Amino acid sequence: MVFLHVKRGDESQFLYETSTAIGIEQLSYDLVTIYNGRLKVSRVCSEIEELAKHGTMLPPDMLGLTDEQVEELHLVDEWADQCIPSGGWRFNRDPVGRRNGRQPQPKMGDVLTNAIEDAKAMISKKLVTENKTLSQRIVQDALDLLRGAVTIVYPMQLPPHDPIRMEFSNTEDLSGTQASLEVIEPAKVQLWFAGKAMPSDKNLGEIVGSNEKTKIIVKLAKLNEGAPGREPVISEDAKKQMMLHAYRRQEELKKLEQDDDDQYLDTAWSDSRSLKRQVHGLEDVKFKFTK
After folding, report:
1. Ramachandran angles phi, psi of 200, nearest 5°
2. What Å distances lie between residue 88 and 16, 20, 179, CA to CA?
3. Chain segment 174-208, per-residue pLDDT in tens
4. Up-side HSE of residue 199: CA atoms within 13 Å toward CB?
5. CB 152 within 8 A of CB 115
6. Do 98 and 58 form a contact (C-beta atoms < 8 A)?
7. How do strand 215-222 and strand 2-8 relate by DSSP bridges?
8. C-alpha to C-alpha distance for 17 and 1, rounded to whole angstroms
9. What is the pTM of this model?
């Protein structure tokens, strides 16, 4: 099987295992699906962290309003009493005014927190250094884990306007957000290998050869985004080692420049008259004084 080290720009994303027989068009779809799936898991984890702290999302017409403004406008969160966490809640005001402040009790909060940690570990970029591959199945399992934890804490489901519920139902609206810039549409993805765009009408074997034990670096980009930067000739680890060696050498030279010790003048090899004494037999002459 061919191992692909998938990057976005210069940043490692994940490892993917495939065959040389796969078409580039299908490969592009598979890789961008995993890439976007990882982004979705990260977004959901971020929102669940807020859910565990401040409860469910307020209705759109109440977002960012103060209590006085809500009372003045006679607005009511109709979903607050319908979407109550298991085991009850305690009030913890949301400082940015997005959520209703009904925080789940500690035990239910731990359920959400533990699910977040496990899901992040399943799609972590650290898997690259551990030489572990990622697949669509693993990404889906991470989402299912998060969905299960939310269902345990909120068996009556979340309000339909809550971004977590919208993410799970794939109805999220990312327009105008930073997340929308990170997502790559499957129809607009371009794969790059060795500084060249990979033609969608070819299969992987035609580009990298028929060796199934190949490991290559593939970069994800958007169409018309331009070619991503080439991989450096020297790896980052090798560069660090070279810099460390240069620093140590520089410190050694500084110490030599500052060393003005002249104790070596007392040694035998530095005595210019040593040879003369040896010729005259005066080397190692000892005197003994007696009464």
Report:
1. -75, -15
2. 43, 54, 33
3. 888 888 899 999 999 999 998 899 998 999 999 99
4. 7
5. no
6. yes
7. parallel
8. 6
9. 0.78
